[in-house]
Write a structure and sequence with these properties.
The strands form three sheets. Strands 6-11-10-9-8-7 form a six-stranded parallel β-sheet. Strands 3-5-1-12 form a four-stranded antiparallel β-sheet, covered by helices on one side. It has two domains: 139 residues, Quinolinate phosphoribosyl transferase, N-terminal domain (Aldehyde Oxidoreductase, domain 3, Alpha-Beta Complex); 146 residues, Aldolase class I (TIM Barrel, Alpha-Beta Barrel), CATH 3.20.20. α10 links the parallel β10 and β11. The model has no long low-confidence stretch (mean pLDDT 95). The two termini are 25 Å apart. Helices cover 41% and strands 19% of the residues. It is an alpha/beta fold. α1 packs across α3 and α6 crosses α7. The protein is built from eleven helices and twelve strands.
């Protein structure tokens, strides 16, 4: 069985995860001061556990779903526990991307009770946030199933958490559009205003970043034609009606140009939008507005 802390296949870099774990724990335990590497960090930091839990007490804690959903972030949460209890034993009955039901045990940790309780909130915050995004994403993926359309995220992420949140989207069955401003050129209205025209903006990007995919934002079908004439690779169709989307799809025809619908999308209209023939639906709400998945830690001593 794969170790509960194994990040293989997640696309998350171990160094970034360890830094996230450290930041999260210091926020909760020290107010930002560095954690010691070797000591019982619960003593003097988690004042409640230090006062109420004997230092030699061991226990087993289950990370449990309190609601139905899709789980994500378990290996990261597991690393929170092992940071404070390096000798803890962990088993993961669930895996990231699994649909889970209320009452399911997702992760079990055995170790010093002080350390388990000191790690509890940090681990829950990470896994609950990631699982909430994965759960919301799966609802969108289910809504467009069979249409061929792919659900995308956006750059509307929590500062400092983008790799985790975009990973959670993948756990939910969605896809990542771009990680930042550096990997796709997105020509928007302000860029057009600065460059003078869509054609000028696209030409400048081609000149200075020839290997980068160029996407152009379009608010009207007329702008779609302008972007195609300029040689865009990818069109962002912003706040268009389904009729306008179908017109845009027809304009593109057999050209090797992808179409992405965005703006004002809801689950109720997702399938109708996907049925227009667009390649992608991008949904900023996946990362900026998804509620957490309710998770809890149940402790057994002894």
């Amino acid at each position: 069985m794969r170790a509960a802390t194994d990040l293989t296949g997640t696309g998350l870099e171990a160094a970034w995860v360890d830094e996230l774990v450290e930041r999260t724990l210091t926020e909760d335990l020290t107010g930002g001061a560095p954690l010691p590497r070797q000591s019982d960090v619960a003593v003097g930091y988690d004042v409640t556990s230090a006062a109420t839990v004997p230092g030699d007490q061991f226990g087993t804690a289950d990370l449990v779903a309190r609601a139905d959903g899709v789980v994500a972030g378990l290996p990261v949460a597991a690393r929170v526990f092992t940071r404070l209890a390096p000798g803890a034993t962990l088993t993961a009955p669930a895996a990231d991307g699994d649909r889970v039901r209320r009452g399911d045990v997702l992760l079990t940790v055995r170790g010093p009770v002080r350390a388990l309780l000191a790690a509890e909130r940090s681990a829950l915050n990470i896994a609950s946030r990631a699982s909430g995004i994965a759960t919301a994403t799966r609802a969108w993926v289910d809504a467009v199933a069979g249409t061929g359309a792919v659900v995308l995220d956006t750059r509307k992420t929590t500062p400092g958490l983008r790799p985790l949140e975009k990973y959670a989207v993948r756990c939910g069955g969605g896809s990542n559009k771009r990680m930042g401003l550096y990997d796709v050129a997105m020509v928007k209205d302000n860029h057009v205003a600065a460059a003078g025209s869509v054609a000028a903006a696209v030409a400048l990007v081609r000149e200075r970043a020839p290997r980068v995919t160029v996407q152009v934002e379009c608010d009207t079908v007329a702008q779609v034609g302008e972007a195609l004439d300029a040689g865009a690779d990818f069109l962002l169709l912003d706040n268009m009606t389904t009729d306008q989307l179908r017109e845009a799809v027809a304009l593109v025809g057999d050209l090797d140009v992808d179409l992405e619908a965005t703006g004002g999308l809801t689950l109720e209209v997702a399938r109708a939008v996907a049925d227009t023939g667009v390649d992608y639906l991008s949904v900023g709400a996946l990362t900026h507005s998804s509620p957490i998945l309710d998770l809890a830690l149940d402790l057994r001593t002894g």
